[in-house]
Each structure stands twice: as C-alpha cells, then as structure tokens.
Design brief:
Length: about 210
C-alpha cells in the first residue's frame, strides 16, 4: 500500500500515541519499565505520550500515512540542541508523572530510570534516534528507511552523525548493515544488553531494496 512520509505536529498527537503504544511492547527498555503493566493499553499510551509529545512539539517527529490518511508509522529524533519548549510550555509537567506516582512498581522503576547515568553519547552533537514504531500490518522492509530520511537529511545539512540505542541484537545489526553505522558500545542494565550504534559524519547514503 502506498504511503506518504510527512512531518507531524501536535495536532496528530492522538494518532502518534495510537501507533507508538503498540511499538512500546517491542522495546526492551519500555517492557522493563512497564513491567507487569505491559499489557495495559492505558499505561502504554501514557508512556508513548511522555516520550513523544515534547519531540512532536519541537518538530522532531515524522510519520508514514497510508492512502486512507491513517498514520501507520512514526520516527522521532532529538538533536542535542533542540528547544523542547518552543512555545514556552514545559516539556513535562507534574501531571505527566501522576500515572507512575500512583502505580507501585512503575513508580520505582521510573525513578530508577531517571536517576541512573544516561547511556553514553558517541559525540556531543550526535542526533539521538529516540523512537521508531510501525503498525504490525505495515512492517515492510523500507518503511522505516523511508521515515528515517528526514533525520538523515537533518544530519547531513548540519554535518552531524546520528546514533541509536537498542536492546535488540536484530535491530543493532539492521542499523549496522542498513546505514553502515558503527557499533560503539554495549551496556548491561537490569539483565538486558543495550547496544549503541553511530553513523558517519554526515551519514552515508544507503541503497534501498524495495
């Protein structure tokens, strides 16, 4: 099915959440964070909004829209110098963490996540590929590549590399082979191995196989 890649703004937040909450299930870090609540759609939606609303407001989210106008995939990235409060609204508010504060287990894990040392950044100005999700029926080979083009172009225009952390060896190898990125670090945390990959400066063009 034909899809169009377009920049998304805050008006698409409900659609972004609807796609992203399904992707939360597949990401080891977020499976750990939600723990026993991973099958609770409301908790997954809460987490998806927590992650993506600030980036959506900052113009750092693109999506794939099918021929019916339905959002079927999202990619979000975060430059080190992006303004997450372009209109003066704080990226996160106390209300954003009320769900976690009222949920034993989730509350403690979120606190652990936020107080742990951040995962290493390969170079200071590298652009962080924060989140990728595609609806199950649309997980064809090139859709994520198509959405990543906007992030790649951002990096190329500014002569910056991009990087990503993943808890999936399959995605690690996919980044390495798909973009000729370099595997630069492995971190063991809460029983899961997380792999860091970084592109060239600027990213190498890659060939799609449609």
């Amino acid at each position: 099915m034909h899809t169009i890649i377009r920049a998304l703004d805050r008006n698409r937040l409900p659609d972004v959440i609807a796609v992203a909450e399904q992707g939360v299930r597949d990401i080891p870090l977020y499976r750990w964070l939600l723990g026993e609540h991973i099958d609770d759609q409301n908790k997954r939606e809460w987490l998806a909004e927590l992650i993506l609303r600030p980036l959506l407001n900052a113009g750092c989210v693109v999506g794939a829209v099918d021929s019916h106008g339905t959002l079927v995939g999202v990619v979000a990235w975060q430059p080190h110098d992006v303004n997450l409060s372009p209109d003066g609204t704080p990226p996160l508010t106390p209300a954003d963490v009320e769900v976690a504060a009222a949920t034993p287990g989730l509350r403690e894990r979120l606190l652990e996540l936020w107080t742990s040392p951040p995962l290493p950044i390969p170079v200071q100005d590298a652009v962080n590929c924060v989140f990728t999700a595609v609806l199950p029926d649309h997980r064809r080979g090139s859709l994520v590549l198509d959405m990543m083009e906007t992030c790649e172009q951002f990096c190329t225009d500014r002569n910056r590399p991009f990087y990503a952390w993943t808890g999936s060896p399959h995605l690690r190898d996919w980044f390495v082979s798909g973009w000729e990125t370099t595997w630069f670090s492995t971190i063991e945390w809460n029983g899961v191995s997380y792999y860091g990959v970084v592109s060239d400066r600027p990213p190498k063009p890659h060939t799609r196989h449609r």
